[in-house]
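Dear colleagues,

As part of the handover before I leave the project, I'm documenting each prediction I ran so the next person doesn't have to rerun anything. This entry is a single chain, and its sequence is reproduced below.
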Amino acid sequence: MAYTPKTVATGNSVDEYLAMLSESQARDSQTLIDMMQQVSGEPPVLWGTIIGFGKFHYKTKSGIEADWPKIAFAPRKGMLSLYVTFEAAQYKKELDAIGKHKIGKGCIYFKNLDEVNLQSLRTLIEKAYQQDFPC
């Protein structure tokens, strides 16, 4: 049986999605949308509940193939999740400049953008968008 990815680009409205968020999440999301759109030159696309920009096709060693946004984020309960296509820890210097955050393997988590250096975040997003994708 062929693999069907759970997270795929949809035709759903980003504006309608933002309208369902709290005021602070919608404000932070709009800031990230503006920043990522400027960096990528791409329009925002909903991938389920992830807002992504650009896309690349990957194939894992086990043969699974799918598409994924080059840069993306998701407003989650109590945080923002920034999705990057590299191991986040390799950018320690850039992450330290951003401010208060947590990292996962390919995610960077922020409580909100009030605690983040936006210029440093933009620099990291630019690096993420220009990253050669490992797959």
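The longest strand covers residues 71-76. Strands lie at 45-47, 50-53, 56-59, 65-68, 71-76, 79-83, 102-103, 107-110.

All the best with the project,
I.
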